[in-house]
């Protein structure tokens, strides 16, 4: 079984929507009065579909054909108004619409190649919306503590393992493995990640026309510290 096909098939089992995520999104949409959202790196559409349930018009995009296919099937099954299509966050030129908000959640942003591409991507985001919500792993903690392994995720059907390999060029190899309980089959894959520290992210946001309006360490809205599991940032486009 191909790793990324397996990951897309079991993504919702591995990463189910949790109460704090749902509440955070609802509060954010209400506070910023969003009526439309572009969800970049939407995965299997979990956040996009939840956002559409609030009455917001949502387009979810992802680089994975499998993820987009699953998202469309989920939306159709439950009658969601969310729509989905293929797109790479590095090139949003085919998306002609503008939105109130842009979401880039689930550590999608860390797939840029470095500072230059980060700046290019955040600049593109500013052409698509006036409000921005970002979420990544807290790489300040990962780098400071040289964290090499994230907690494994165990479900009724599988165990999901995640390890980091620190590279000399400052990037991370993110090594993932899924072990299926019944068949004992194991599939694995590796992604190259740019570990974006929070100061770098905030500096680049400012350089690309964004003003940070909120920062948290998780979707429970706990204050961000170097020990936080995640970095969640909200920003507003600075009027020109």
Count the beta strands: 11
Strand order of the largest sheet: 3-2-1-4-5-11-10
| Shape, principal axes of CA atoms | globular
Mean pLDDT: 96
Describe the structure in your own words.
By secondary structure, the chain is an alpha/beta fold. It has two domains: 3-137 and 196-237, 3-Layer(aba) Sandwich (Rossmann fold); 142-193. Helices cover 32% and strands 32% of the residues. The chain is built from seven helices and eleven strands. The protein has helices spanning 3-14, 19-32, 46-52, 65-78, 115-128, 139-144, 198-207, and strands at 36-40, 57-62, 83-86, 99-104, 129-137, 149-154, 158-166, 172-180, 186-193, 210-216, 230-237. It has a seven-stranded mixed β-sheet, with helices on both faces. Strands 6-7-8-9 form a four-stranded antiparallel β-sheet, covered by helices on one side. A hairpin with a 5-residue loop joins strand 8 and strand 9 (186-193). The longest helix has 14 residues, at 19-32.
């Amino acid at each position: 079984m191909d790793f990324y096909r397996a990951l897309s098939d079991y993504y919702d089992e591995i990463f189910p929507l949790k109460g704090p995520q749902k509440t955070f999104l609802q509060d954010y949409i209400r506070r910023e009065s969003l009526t439309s959202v572009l969800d970049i790196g939407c995965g299997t559409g979990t956040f996009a579909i939840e956002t559409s349930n609030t009455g917001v018009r949502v387009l979810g995009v992802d680089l994975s054909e499998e993820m987009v296919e699953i998202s469309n099937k989920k939306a159709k099954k439950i009658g969601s108004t969310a729509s989905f299509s293929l797109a790479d966050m590095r090139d949003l030129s085919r998306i002609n619409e503008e939105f109130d908000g842009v979401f880039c959640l689930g550590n999608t942003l860390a797939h840029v190649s470095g500072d230059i591409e980060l700046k290019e991507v955040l600049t593109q985001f500013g052409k698509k919306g006036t409000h921005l919500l970002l979420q990544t792993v807290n790489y300040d903690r990962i780098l400071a503590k040289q964290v090499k392994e994230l907690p494994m995720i165990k479900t009724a059907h599988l165990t999901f393992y995640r390890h980091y390999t620190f590279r000399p060029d400052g990037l991370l190899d993110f090594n993932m493995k899924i072990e299926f309980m019944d068949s004992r089959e194991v599939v694995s894959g590796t992604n190259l990640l740019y570990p974006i520290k929070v100061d770098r992210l905030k500096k680049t946001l400012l350089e690309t026309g964004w003003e940070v309006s909120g920062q948290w360490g998780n979707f429970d809205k706990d204050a961000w510290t170097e020990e936080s599991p995640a970095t969640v940032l909200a920003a507003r486009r600075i009027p020109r």
